[in-house]
Amino acid sequence: MNSQSQSGYLTGKLVVLEPMQPEHIPALSIAVSDGNLWELWYTSAPHPDEMKHYVDEALAGEKRGEVLAFVVRDRFSGLVVGTTRIMSWDQANRRLEIGHTWYAKRAQRTGINSETKYLLLSYAFEVLDVMAVEFRTHWHNQRSREAISRLGAKQDGVLRNHRLLKDGTVRDTVVYSIIESEWPSVKQNLLYRMKQFELNR
């Protein structure tokens, strides 16, 4: 996966998506500790002690051409508040997935997720020229499911007994997608949502 903006950065009004680097490990460890996100058993957020492995794994995926991993930096505070990835890019079928997304508690419901998704979806549909973007989440992660639905994504189905998690439980995965014909209306929805957050700041 070698198509990327010239600098590798995707920049909005609220956030900058920076290509993930090893030097981000301390900041990501602080971000994941805001809300102890690893304690939410239905998320994939790592414990701070696992952050080096988490970042190394993401960067290994980039070297294999499978992943574009970003950290999410709040433009106002200057702090790293989370991470997200473009992944599972099937170039032959012009599909990819946006996943491994999590945010520090202070960044949730602030407009940061809406703008992050806007930047990634714009890049996917308008630069990478995909025809579908997929999102996957745990059946029990109701907050994530609601956030994905608010984007305008539609549920494709449920993969039952899809994954064995590290705590020994079995994950049912809910699959959503946005297709290229839906992108113009999804884009307008995101622009409207972002404007509302700006007005409420």
Order of helices and strands: EEHHEEEHEHEEH
Instruction: Please tell me the total number of domains.
Output: 1
Shape: globular
Strand residue percentage? 25-35%
Tally the beta strands. 8
What portion of residues is helical?
25-40%
Rg, Å, rounded: 16 Å
Biggest beta sheet attributes: 8 strands, mixed
Q: Which strands sit side by side, in order, in the main sheet?
A: 1-2-3-4-5-6-8-7
What does this protein structure show overall?
This protein starts with 9 loop residues before the first strand and ends with a helix. An eight-stranded mixed β-sheet has the order 1-2-3-4-5-6-8-7, with helices on both faces. The chain has a single domain (10-199), classed as Aminopeptidase, CATH 3.40.630. 32% of the residues lie in helices and 31% in strands. The chain has helices at 25-33, 51-63, 112-126, 142-151, 183-199, and strands spanning 10-11, 15-19, 67-74, 80-90, 95-103, 132-138, 154-164, 170-179. With 201 residues, the chain is of the alpha+beta class. Helix 3 (112-126) runs antiparallel to helix 5 (183-199).
